[in-house]
Amino acid sequence: MAKTPEKSPSSAHPRMKVLPAPVLSYRPRDPKRFHPGIALVGCGGISAWHLRAYQAAKYRVVALCDVMLDRARERRDEFFPDALATDSLHVVLARDDVQVVDITTHPLERPPLVEAALRARKHVLSQKPFVIDLDVGLRLADLADEMGVRLAVNQNGRWAPHFSYIREAVVAGLLGAVDSIHCGVHWDHSWVQGTAFESVRHLILYDFGIHWFDFVRTLMGEQSPRRVFASMTRSATQAIDPALMAQAIIEYDSTQVTLVFDGFTRFNPIEHTLVSGDRGILRSAGPDSKTQRVELAMADGVSRPRLKGKWFPDGFHGTMAELLCAIAENREPTHSARNNLASLSLCYAAVASAERGEAVVPGTVRQLPQG
Length: 371
Known about the structure:
By secondary structure, the chain is α/β, with parallel strands linked by helices. The protein folds into two domains: 37-156, NAD(P)-binding Rossmann-like Domain (Rossmann fold, 3-Layer(aba) Sandwich), CATH 3.40.50; 158-309 and 337-356, Dihydrodipicolinate Reductase, domain 2, CATH 3.30.360.10. The protein is 32% helix and 23% strand. The protein contains eleven helices and 14 strands. The strands form two sheets. An eight-stranded mixed β-sheet has the order 8-9-10-7-11-12-13-14. Strands 3-2-1-4-5-6 form a six-stranded parallel β-sheet, sandwiched between helices. The longest helix is centred in the C-terminal third of the chain and has 20 residues, at 337-356. The model is unreliable at 1-13 (pLDDT under 50).
């Protein structure tokens, strides 16, 4: 007797209908008719991405400051040749045409600079990670309120196109209740060898991972995580000091979250994100954080938005744009210091868990564990 032909996977599971992608506001939004003077303090490596984004957005950068005057002059000449280059923060803060100060220095020296700018009644964008002590961050947030100015954190991953689109889809309710969030990043982070970052013990979970802890926080809104368990380890063949591999499991009342960081993947890197809800699923994948393809699947079909922009430099445009819009609209920025402290709280709990080998409740760890 002849066998009945088996159905192919395609006939057993017909292709889902391809739908137009939902239109979501995932791109940076600039304020209308508001062009304040911006000063950049700290002209190290990351400052080039800030200035490149501001140049493209046609922002008005009027001063650049660094303790090494030559670095301030170099950045000035490359991006904003009409701006002042100085090694004096006092000179910057005394200028009436400076309304916003972008502080890009490393975390240890940043708090007194932020405080000085706030006391001069300047709005401030602080580089991430914001602080290494949550109570210091809370004090700075309170000071900003007292001075009547805005304090935001350059959590630039929020405006990476794929992260931003996923967040806006979740906020719009397209996925319904979020059941799970899974992120995997498999890349080579050993580029930090010979730089100041090589001395950061928790390079992956803290300095790098804060983007993903913050991403989870933006999806989960006001829901509080119950606990987090994390670990880290060194590759047997890595040549730099910090552990380049780490992972975290985050528990919510009805949502599970996993983050995997393989920071010593030397061949064929890949990054992927999956967010699943009771009404749909969103996933993105690509060779790195700058090149991602997003797909949204729901009961009536699947859509594949063609996203514009890249994390670098659009993420840096987004952080300043949101701060400027908040100033112009007299409201708290979505990436305010106070908002960002909840992301840091989750990150610190993960770092503490990796140190202790046990689950930790976010909020119980007030300072970045040093190990």
